[in-house]
Amino acid sequence: MSSPALTPEHILQTGTAFWASKTLLSAVEMEVFTELAKHPEDLDTLTGRLGLHPRSSRDFLDTLVALGFLERQDGVYSNTQETDLFLDKRKPSYIGGMLEMANQRLYPHWNNLTRALRTGQPQGEGGPGDETFASLYADPKRLKGF
């Protein structure tokens, strides 16, 4: 019995997983789902409403379609049932606050993982040696975001 052929698929999917993650985080940051919860829109209208550059808007929105976060029918974009329920800021079921915090506070620090692993130094918001919670509680704006 032969073993299945080895492929790099799992390695590449994991190594580039941040592409999908950052696309979703940016969409939450720009309130794409909250805007589309008002009503579906075509590319040009949505590009203007979100303040997107025309060069990247189609690729960005179509990536959200490919990832299953938006639907597109006859050139009109709309939320999926899931994103409509959980990523519309106006609904009590909104969970995007966690994603907003991940985008603003956590995502940048993961870029320092290799440094932290090599040096053993914390890579918090204030840099190596930062007491994250002390500095967090000292700043009301950052604390609110937390």
Please summarize what this structure is.
The protein has 146 residues and is mainly α.
What is the assigned CATH homologous superfamily of the domain at 17-95?
A: Winged helix-like DNA-binding domain superfamily/Winged helix DNA-binding domain
Class of secondary structure makeup: mainly alpha
CATH fold type of the domain at 17-95: Arc Repressor Mutant, subunit A
> What composes the largest sheet?
3 strands, antiparallel
How much of the sequence lies in strands comes to 5-15%
- How big is the Rg? 19 Å
Mean pLDDT: 90
Instruction: State the distance separating the first and last CA atoms.
Output: 54 Å
Low-pLDDT segments, ≥5 res: none
Biggest sheet: strands side by side, in what order? 1-3-2
CATH architecture label name of the domain at 17-95: Orthogonal Bundle
CATH class of the domain at 17-95: Mainly Alpha
Write down the overall geometry: flat
How are the elements arranged and paired?
Blueprint: H1 9-15, H2 17-29, H3 32-38, E1 41-42, H4 43-50, H5 54-66, E2 70-73, E3 76-79, H6 81-86, H7 96-110, H8 113-119, H9 132-138, H10 140-145
Helix pairs in contact: 2-7
Give an overview in words.
With about 150 residues, this protein is mainly α. The termini are far apart. The protein contains 10 helices and 3 strands. Helices cover about 60% and strands about 5% of the residues. It has a 3-stranded antiparallel beta sheet with strand order 1-3-2. The protein has helices at about 10-15, 15-30, 30-40, 45-50, 55-65, 80-85, 95-110, 115-120, 130-140, 140-145; strands spanning about 40, 70-75, 75-80. The chain has a domain at about 15-95: Arc Repressor Mutant, subunit A (Orthogonal Bundle), CATH 1.10.10.
